Every structure is written in structure tokens, then in C-alpha cells.
Fold this sequence. Notes:
single chain, 1 helix, about 80% helix, rod-shaped, mainly alpha, about 0% strand
Amino acid sequence: MAKxxxxxxxxxxxxxxxxxxxxxxxxxxxxxxxxxxLKAIITLAKNNNS
Length: 50
């Protein structure tokens, strides 16, 4: 017999997906920020050596 009422895991799955997307976006933004900082440091070093 099928369970009557709301679906079993939809709220949990939606919440989990939302949290995982948030985590992935945070990691992506940190990676981009790190790369920008490194590029700035490299350009400063090149300018100082020239």
C-alpha cells in the first residue's frame, strides 16, 4: 500500500541540494579570489624586478 500524505524525502532533498549548491559556490568564489590575489602578487613582482 502506498503511503498517503506528503512525499517522504522532498523537503530534505531540497534542503540538501540548496546547502550543497551554497557550499560549491563558496568554494568557487574562494578559488577565484585566491587566483586574483596571486595574479596581483605576480604582476607586482614583475614590475619591481623590471
